[in-house]
Specification:
- By secondary structure, this protein is an alpha+beta fold.
- 39% of the residues lie in helices and 16% in strands.
- The chain has seven helices and five strands; from the N terminus they run αβαβααβαβαβα.
- The longest helix is centred in the middle third of the chain and has 21 residues.
């Protein structure tokens, strides 16, 4: 069973993202999304800098967001073909709910940039856990849009910011399937000094 809500420990060991392209309505309503985002904010944050921002791309703005993605893609890749532009369109219209998470580190802070970026990643992970705990599925994607300056600027990011990811939230349109996971022995060792 994936996303077992019987206990926090059960959710931690059964958490499974849904595929954004397979998500269907309903997604979280505005009150549920607020609770999810408030949970996402409860992450380690050395210096209390809140080095992340959440930008909701509402359903009625998805066509405009798709147009922005296609325009930015063509500006970077003028030779782009129909299939590539359709991929941008599809990206913008996945899942009932989309939240862009920006890493917005405080420049010239005593808190290292890396720690601030890790906090943004933790906010993405908390957002996923809160989504699953609310009975929905979530998916954290990057892809080309996460690395384009025009897309970042459209989301209110500065040149020092980065898009940590796009979080897609909704209901599963098909059964979740396990994916390969590393074995414990492959990723855990004991320091020997």
């Amino acid at each position: 069973m994936f996303n077992d809500l019987s206990s926090t420990a059960a959710l931690l060991v059964t958490r499974r993202s849904g595929k954004a392209r397979d998500m269907i309505a309903p997604g979280p309503d505005s009150a549920e999304l607020r609770r999810i985002l408030e949970a996402a904010m409860r992450v380690p944050d050395h210096g209390k800098l809140a080095p992340w921002r959440f930008v909701i791309v509402e359903a009625d703005r998805r066509d405009a967001f798709a147009d922005l993605l296609k325009d930015a893609y063509r500006a970077e890749k003028p030779e782009a073909g129909r299939i590539e532009l359709e991929a941008m369109e599809q990206f913008a219209h996945q899942a009932p709910t989309m939240v862009a998470v920006l890493s917005t580190p405080t420049q010239n802070s005593k808190i290292p940039l890396w720690e601030q970026e890790l906090s943004a990643g933790a906010a993405c992970m908390n957002l996923l856990f809160a989504t699953h705990a609310a009975g929905f599925v979530g998916c954290w994607l990057t892809g080309w849009p996460a690395y384009n300056g025009q897309v970042l600027e459209s989301l209110g990011g500065s040149p020092h910011d980065r898009i940590a990811g796009f979080l897609f939230l909704g209901s599963p349109g098909r059964a979740l399937e396990e994916r390969p996971r590393p074995t414990y022995e492959a990723v855990v060792s004991t320091w020997k000094g």
